[in-house]
Design a protein that fits this description.
CATH class of one domain in chain A: Alpha Beta
Largest interface: A-B, 33 and 27 residues
Number of strands of chain B: 13
Distance between the termini of chain A: 45 Å
Strand content of chain A: 15-25%
Radius of gyration of chain A: 51 Å
CATH architecture of one domain in chain A: 2-Layer Sandwich
Radius of gyration of chain B: 18 Å
CATH topology of the largest domain in chain B: Rossmann fold
Helix content of chain A: 40-55%
CATH superfamily of one domain in chain A: Histidine kinase-like ATPase, C-terminal domain
Number of domains of chain B: 2
Oligomer: heterodimer
Structural class of chain B: alpha/beta
Strand order of the largest sheet of chain A: 2-1-5-4-3
CATH architecture of the largest domain in chain B: 3-Layer(aba) Sandwich
Shape of chain B: elongated
Strand order of the largest sheet of chain B: 2-1-3-6-7
Number of helices of chain B: 8
Helix content of chain B: 40-55%
Chain lengths: 437, 220
């Protein structure tokens, strides 16, 4: 059921109905037993009374006074009485009593069918006076008594039922008002209104929902702020190279000195190379972001990929790159493209920052690490690296601030993890890739 | 004009240095707030070209520190952000002008000349002393309406002396105006330039005060 109100209404109505039916059944059974008991006692007493009266009379008339037929509808003349002699002769009977003997039993209770109707009879035998008194009533009458009692109870209840339903409907509506109010409050908000939902006064049942909503609002707000930051950084990172290109081009146009012209043109070539790399990285990020890269896992030999990257990446003259044997022979169950993106960006970072020294690739258990001898990362920047366009204080002049973001995205696709730390006891950075096997 | 460029992008910084040099300015370039602070506290600059996003902080903070020291050096902000809010906060932080990247080199140079001129208390585009008229926009000079040919450095020395004609400028002061950090100063360079200037604008146009420096003299 879609509506909470309808659902609550149905549940409450069903519960009330069940309680009512149970109560009716209980009252019915209880009343029937009680009525049975009372009427049985009355039969017994009446029979004894008649017996004691009859024992005082010597000459009982041999026939009875015929009685006018009574409609079954009323409770009058419920009891019928017969007095028989012990030899089987009817001595007397009350008006309305059947002619047939009420009970064959000598004494005590018995149930009989007389003229197609069930009867309950109590017999008393008085051997001294040669009498047998039988008092009985129709079981149908008894049933009617109980039924009338239940009807008397049910009628007002049925009349009240619609009122009760309306009251439940209204109460449920009232009980759900805080929810409705919250929905109204949220529904009328401006799209950029990220204020937290009021939780102090919210009912206990609604509070978890409100808190969850607030959590979501905070996350959305953080994501939006991050997006704005990224846009600002992107603007800077894209416009600065353009400004450099334009300035150098204008220098080349304006200068007379051929050496200055040549210098400016060389700078333009470098700027175009850098911008090309920036665009390539932006496209890579966009592709990884859009989930267009399906990254099926397969066994990948790390060695050839890494050797190709190392060969293709320029480095400072006095920097050496070593690939340990463990890495050369390593085979990982991962995605070749994602692995290549991660390895290339990490390698580029390492060789760009190592002006002089060793860059070493080594293997661990399901892990690859690269260590450089660059300046390292200022500790206060460690938790910021990997954010898009973030470039630290010790930035390389040709970085884009996107490399580590690409590494993280690519590794996330294949379920691998990146850990970056400063090397212990010496200068440089250590980046480690850990693969889930 | 001696200009400090605070810009961390090496290609743009190099372009600014080369481009502003073409307009007759002497340019020092730094890439961080820290270096800029040091440069500004040791050298007097005619103007500063300041990028906002720097590796070790915001150019705006640097600007506020500068103004906090009561330093009135004209500052032109360069930034990739060009929303109105960014421009307002830049100007309100004490900047004299604002240019969004990418910009036109000629416009940058013109704006720099304008803010330098205003800082010197001049509103017009030319500097005049007697019959001498200097036009910093195109590095041209005339004496009594006759154009004279000045080299970039000669122009710079004459402009420095004409900024406050009654004030004596020491040799070191003039050298500072002429040479950036990277350039080697020849020991008698200033004397050579003064000598050439006198040949072009008149013997008495520049006075020498022995052991003190130079100032403007009488122009025929």
């Amino acid at each position: 059921m879609r509506s909470l109100r309808l659902r609550l209404f149905a549940i409450l109505l069903a519960a009330t109905g069940i309680v009512w039916v149970a109560a009716v059944v209980w009252i019915y059974v209880g009343s029937r037993d009680e009525v049975e008991h009372v009427l049985d006692t009355r039969l017994q007493e009446a029979a004894r009374m008649v017996a004691s009266l009859a024992s005082g009379l010597d000459n009982l008339p041999g026939n009875s006074v015929p009685a006018a037929a009574q409609p079954l509808g009323s409770y009058e003349r419920q009891l019928s009485c017969q007095i028989w002699s012990l030899d089987g002769r009817m001595v007397a009977k009350s008006s309305g009593a059947p002619d047939q003997q009420l009970s064959p039993a000598a004494s005590g209770f018995s149930d009989r069918i007389i003229d197609g109707e069930p009867w309950r009879v109590f017999s008393v035998e008085d051997a001294d006076h040669n009498l047998r008194v039988m008092v009985g009533d129709r079981v149908g009458l008894r049933e009617r008594l109980v039924t009338d009692l239940i009807k008397g109870l049910m009628l007002p209840a049925l009349l009240i039922a619609p009122l009760l339903g309306a009251a439940i409907w209204a109460s449920v509506g009232q009980g759900l008002r805080p929810l409705r109010q919250m929905a109204q409050d949220l529904g009328t908000r401006e799209p950029d209104d990220m204020r937290q939902v009021e939780t102090e006064r919210a009912p206990a049942e609604v509070r978890p929902l409100a808190l969850a909503l607030n959590g979501l609002l905070s996350r959305v707000e953080a994501a939006r702020r991050h997006e704005r930051e990224v846009t600002a950084f992107a603007a800077h990172e894209l416009r600065t190279p353009l400004a450099g290109l334009k300035t150098q081009a204008q220098v080349a146009l304006a200068a007379d000195d051929p050496q200055v012209v040549r210098g400016a043109l060389e700078q333009i070539v470098t700027a175009v190379d850098r911008s090309t790399r920036l665009v390539r990285q932006l496209l890579t990020i966009a592709r990884l972001d859009s989930d267009a890269v399906d990254a099926p896992l397969a066994p990948v030999a790390v060695g050839p990929i890494l050797e190709e990257i190392v060969a293709a990446t320029p480095r400072h003259e006095r920097t050496t790159v070593t690939i340990d044997a463990g890495v050369r022979t390593m085979v990982l169950n991962t995605n070749a493209e994602c692995l290549q993106l991660a390895l290339r960006n990490l390698h580029e970072n390492a060789v760009q920052h190592t002006r002089e020294g060793r860059v070493v690739w080594s293997a661990g258990k399901n892990a690859i690490a690269i260590e450089d001898e660059g300046p390292g990362i200022p500790p206060e920047e460690l938790d910021q690296i990997g954010k898009r366009f973030f470039r630290g204080r010790l930035r390389s002049p040709i970085g884009s601030g996107l490399g580590l973001a690409i590494v993280k995205l690519a590794l996330a696709k294949v379920g691998a993890k990146l850990t970056i730390s400063n090397r212990e006891g010496r200068r440089g950075t250590r980046s480690e890739l850990t693969f889930d096997i | 004009m001696r200009i400090l460029v605070v810009e961390d992008d090496p290609i743009l910084s190099d372009g600014l240095r080369a481009g502003l040099s073409l307009t007759g300015a002497t340019v020092d370039a730094v890439a961080t707030c820290e270096d800029a602070d040091n440069a500004l506290s040791t050298t007097r600059y005619s103007a500063v070209v300041l990028d906002i996003m720097l590796p070790d902080g915001s150019g705006l903070d640097l600007l506020r520190r500068l103004r906090g020291r009561q330093d009135a050096t004209p500052v032109l902000l360069l930034t990739a952000r060009d929303s109105v809010g960014d421009k307002v906060s830049g100007l309100d932080s004490g900047a004299d002008d604002y240019l969004a990247k990418p910009f036109d080199l000629d416009e940058l140079a013109a704006r720099l000349r304008a803010i330098v001129r205003r800082e010197g208390g001049r509103a017009g585009p030319t500097m005049t002393y007697g019959a001498i008229v200097l036009s910093p926009a195109d590095l041209s000079a005339t004496v009594s309406g006759e154009p004279i040919n000045l080299s970039r450095r000669e122009f710079a020395i004459l402009a420095a002396l004409m900024e406050r004609p009654e004030q004596v400028r020491s040799r070191a002061e003039l050298e500072e105006r002429l040479y950036g950090w990277q350039e080697d100063v020849e020991s008698n360079a200033v004397e050579v330039h003064i000598h050439n200037l006198r040949n072009k604008i008149g013997r008495d146009a520049i006075q020498t005060l022995r052991g003190v420096g130079y100032r403007m003299g009488t122009v025929r």
